[in-house]
């Protein structure tokens, strides 16, 4: 191979890598402020390839699980950046604290994560990014603790979120009254059962009306959360609440969630296309 061919191939590679970089999603770590908690909180925000402030993009809020943080999804499943590209959506990964449960705590005013995500963070994202700033342009989902959080926040804030999902969600927190730090957020179940009822997704189905909120629920058959998700599915059917429900082999693991998010992203993309 002569020197001219070598130079030509090198130039092709350089141009090719440059194009790949230009066409890739942009992953930002931003510092947001919560007036409710009087502190700054980090979030990962993924902008799709070709992002332009002159366009408007839907936003998918993607919540982490117990003991996680805002960076979990992008570190464990970096392919979510490609989903932002494929479906031309902004993906927002908030921080819900080690065990914040996405509630406004009745025990500690430094944990006001319902207000933070449903109000303060949404306001921040709509102000700083080119979003479709209405409920039909927003969806929310998450894994485990984040699955409960996504359903809880969407049930209570249907004016903010038009679609919601859960992956391996802890959909009935009453099953875990002595676990996962929930009592630190809303008190002991034995002492405050009424508070638990108000914060439990399984107890909030009365807030739903058919077709008011577009829903997808996903859980592995080998997951410890399977029975709770199966009961949620049954109750949604009894109430005639349309929803997608998926069970496939797998447990409470990142391998399962890395697969599940592909189907949920497609589901939310179809919602965005149909409603905007």
Characterization of the model:
With 276 residues, the chain is α/β, with parallel strands linked by helices. It has a single domain, classed as Alpha/Beta hydrolase fold, catalytic domain (Rossmann fold), CATH 3.40.50. The protein is built from 9 helices and 8 strands. It has helices at residues 3-22, 72-76, 80-87, 113-128, 145-156, 182-186, 193-198, 226-238, 254-275; strands at residues 26-34, 39-47, 59-63, 90-93, 138-142, 163-167, 214-220, 244-248. The protein has an 8-stranded mixed sheet with strand order 1-2-4-3-5-6-7-8, sandwiched between helices. β5 (138-142), α5 and β6 (163-167) form a beta-alpha-beta unit. The protein is globular and about 50 Å long.
The structural class is alpha/beta
- As a percent range, the share of strand residues is 15-25%
Helix content: 25-40%
User: What order do the strands of the largest sheet run in, or round the barrel if closed?
Assistant: 1-2-4-3-5-6-7-8
Per the CATH scheme, the topology name is Rossmann fold
CATH architecture: 3-Layer(aba) Sandwich
Distance between the termini: 54 Å
Q: Give the name of the CATH superfamily.
A: Alpha/Beta hydrolase fold, catalytic domain
Q: Regions with pLDDT < 50 over 5+ consecutive residues?
A: 3-22
Using the coordinates above, name the CATH class. Alpha Beta
Number of strand segments = 8
Order of helices and strands: HEEEHHEHEHEHHEHEH
Instruction: Sum up the overall morphology in one term.
Output: globular
Largest beta-sheet details: 8 strands, mixed
Number of domains: 1
Radius of gyration: 20 Å
């Amino acid at each position: 191979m002569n020197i001219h061919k070598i130079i030509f191939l090198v130039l092709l590679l350089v141009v090719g890598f440059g194009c790949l970089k230009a066409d890739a999603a942009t992953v930002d770590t931003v510092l947001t402020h919560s007036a409710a908690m009087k502190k700054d909180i980090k979030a990962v925000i993924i902008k799709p390839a070709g992002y332009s402030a002159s366009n408007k993009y839907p936003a998918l809020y993607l919540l982490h699980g117990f003991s996680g943080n805002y960076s979990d999804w992008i570190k464990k499943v970096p392919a979510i950046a490609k989903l932002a590209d494929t479906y031309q959506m902004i993906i927002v990964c908030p921080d819900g604290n080690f065990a914040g449960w996405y509630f406004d705590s009745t025990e500690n005013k430094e944990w006001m994560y319902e207000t933070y995500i449903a109000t303060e963070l949404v306001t921040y994202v709509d102000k700083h990014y080119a979003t479709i700033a209405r409920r039909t342009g927003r969806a929310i989902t998450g894994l485990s603790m984040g699955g409960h959080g996504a359903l809880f926040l969407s049930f209570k804030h249907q004016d903010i979120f038009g679609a919601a999902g859960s992956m391996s969600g802890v959909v009935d927190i009453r099953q875990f009254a002595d676990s996962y730090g929930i009592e630190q957020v809303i008190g002991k179940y034995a002492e405050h059962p009424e508070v638990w009822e108000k914060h439990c997704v399984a107890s909030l189905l009365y807030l739903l009306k058919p077709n008011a909120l577009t829903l997808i629920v996903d859980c592995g058959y080998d997951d410890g959360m399977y029975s709770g998700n199966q009961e949620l599915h049954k109750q949604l059917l009894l109430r005639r609440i349309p929803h997608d429900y998926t069970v496939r082999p797998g447990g409470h693991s990142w391998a399962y969630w890395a697969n599940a998010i592909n189907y949920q992203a497609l589901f939310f993309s179809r919602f965005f296309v149909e409603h905007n």
